[in-house]
Design a protein that fits this description.
Chain lengths: 164, 414
């Protein structure tokens, strides 16, 4: 499992996915090609399912476009641990089934090469042997995440069963 | 204990999660993609088509066949579903069009981060993501977490050469681009009545750049007058004025003395890289953009035109002007404002979001420095990674266009 560590604050949606492709890239593979292109050109090729991103304050600030959260979920990022998240990105990630963990302490504690483990059920992150609690989401949001995003959540609601 | 605006309008305590039916769900060009998500959710019919407001603005008119086809898909969808509130290409930027629909006391959501602009009309106006918009089409409602609130009290009035954009940049300079993170910003104080609706829209527009959930202004005489003289008003209508209690509790409170503010810019590449215009005066600029949802209204165009009247912009300078709506365009034509821009050497573009987001006309060249009245200056924002973007008021942008260097409007007026 890789950890992509971007210590800077204010990683905005244009860095996560350039705005100029907003209306030309909508599928997973199309988005993947440009994901984090202006922040870390090596990301798209090297990211694998289960990988984790660690970042500073105000991660995801900027536009409400969905490609950043959709793309990161598509490539299998299992969690983003940041000091704080921008609001619309936070909503967007939950609606895409992408786990966001707000923990300034965990981010501060991380050193390159540390093992990182996220336990969403227990509400704990483990970094290089140290444990950090994180506040759990309200039940409505946990339910959306558990269904893998709002789309599945709504399908299930309307079909009365597992709508996948 | 007193309640804040947002606690009253959502009728719940801060921190609570509630489900509410928004009065308006705004979507724009991305409606084509939202429709696909809606269909995947099972479609087929929108729960309440009258809730929807759909505006074609970001890529208007389309610059590729892909975009043109998306637009046609949206038109077909609007017809199939019986959506009344649809604004086709050229009618206006969505947040400007919203001013024909927003009424005090409404809950408004939009699949655009600058939906917060409608807070100028004493509404709870909040940006959401696109999947969620599809969810509302299906269910009519969505969840809201009741946020903490921030009170910004305005005193006095602006000096000459200083504008609402400068107030916004001033506040961002004070609190940072995440200074109001997740909060609901309330604008209070006697300074509020000295701001026109257009200026309040500019301030509310930039709430997104402060990290806020929304920003809101009270229903005062200025707003009442605006509503009564606009298409929104129906004689029988009485609006509910929802406003915070005197003893509401705030997470943060700041005081702003409007007469202390001077012209500012947001320097590359982040909106909270605030500098005074005098600090960056003289920096060469190659391109200017006057317009957008932030500063594309008649007042903004008039300010810029007053600087450019009977003058020419600097040799080689690329000045782009975009009125924020058809109505504004026509009014500006009537007043001779458009003629002033064209005579000065500007290109006046079709009503749209245009160059702000780099998907259409007016992409800057490599190494260009742009002065723009938009609200974002991230690297690559305008479609060119090697361009540097300064954000400013329309007057600062116009003054800079004259010389091809960043210039101070308050000096020009002396």
């Amino acid at each position: 499992m890789n950890v992509f560590h971007y210590p800077q604050n204010d990683i905005n949606t244009d860095l996560l996915f350039p705005g100029k492709y907003t209306y030309t890239c909508s599928t997973g593979p199309e988005i993947r090609e440009h994901l984090l292109e202006d922040l870390d050109p090596a990301f798209a090729e090297s990211v694998e399912s289960g990988d984790i991103i660690i970042a500073g304050e105000n991660f995801g600030c900027g536009s409400s476009r969905e490609q950043p959260s959709l793309g990161l979920r598509y490539v299998g990022v299992s969690a983003i641990i940041a000091k704080s998240f921008a609001r619309i990105f936070y909503r967007s990630a939950i609606n895409q089934g992408l786990l966001l963990v707000q923990s300034p302490e965990a981010v501060e504690a991380y050193n390159e090469g540390d093992e990182v483990e996220v336990d969403p059920a227990g509400g704990v992150i483990r970094i290089g042997g140290r444990a950090f609690d994180f506040p759990s989401l309200p039940p409505e949001m946990l339910s959306i995440l558990a269904h893998g995003g709002l789309l599945n959540h709504i399908r299930k609601e309307f079909s009365g069963g597992d709508g996948r | 204990m007193g309640r804040s605006f947002v606690e009253k309008i959502l009728n719940a305590k801060r921190g609570a999660i509630v489900f509410r039916k928004p009065d308006i769900v705004l979507t724009h060009d991305y409606t084509a993609s939202i429709k696909n998500t809606f269909n995947k959710m099972g479609g087929p019919k929108i729960a309440n088509p009258d809730q929807l407001l759909i505006v074609l603005d970001h890529n208007a008119p389309p610059t590729s066949s892909n975009l043109a086809n998306q637009y046609q898909t949206i038109r077909d969808f609007v017809n199939e579903q019986g959506v009344k509130n649809f604004y086709d290409v050229g009618k206006g930027i969505c947040h400007q069009v919203m001013s024909y629909h927003a009424k005090p006391g409404m809950i408004i959501v939009g699949s655009d981060s600058h939906t917060c602009t409608a807070g100028a009309f004493n509404t709870l106006a909040v940006g959401i993501d696109r999947t969620e918009s599809a969810g509302i089409w299906k269910r009519g409602e969505t969840w809201f977490r009741v946020p903490e609130s921030m009170k910004i009290t305005l005193h006095g009035k602006l000096r000459e050469g200083v504008y609402a954009k400068d107030i916004s940049l001033w506040i961002i300079g004070m609190i940072g681009s995440a200074g109001a993170n997740y909060m609901s910003i309330e604008y209070h104080g006697e300074g509020v009545k000295n701001l026109s609706i257009s200026e309040r829209m500019t301030l509310a527009n930039l709430a997104s750049e402060m990290g806020a959930k929304n920003a809101v202004f009270p229903l005062d005489e200025v707003l009442e007058y605006f509503l009564k003289t606009s298409e929104v008003f129906k004689t029988s209508e009485v609006w509910k004025c929802i406003w915070a209690d005197e003893d509401a509790v705030y997470e943060k409170e700041i005081e702003i003395y409007l007469d202390e503010i001077f012209p500012l810019v947001a320097a590359p590449h982040h909106v909270d890289n605030i500098k005074s215009v005098s600090e960056v005066q003289g920096i060469k600029v190659h391109q200017g953009l006057i317009g957008t949802c932030t500063n594309g209204r008649l007042e903004d165009l008039r300010q810029a035109a007053s600087v450019l009247k009977d003058k020419k912009i600097a040799d080689g300078f690329q000045l782009l002007v975009i009125p924020a709506s058809r109505k504004i365009y026509l009014d500006a034509l009537d007043e001779g404002v458009i003629t002033t821009f064209i005579n000065a050497g500007a290109s006046v573009l079709a009503v749209s979001c245009g160059p702000c987001l780099g998907t259409g006309q007016g992409i800057p060249a490599d190494g260009f420095t742009v002065i723009s009245t938009a609200n974002r200056n991230f690297k690559g924002r305008m479609g060119e990674k090697e361009a540097e973007i300064y954000l400013s008021s329309p007057e600062t942008a116009a003054v800079s266009a004259l010389t091809g260097k960043i210039g101070d409007p308050s000096e020009v007026l002396k």
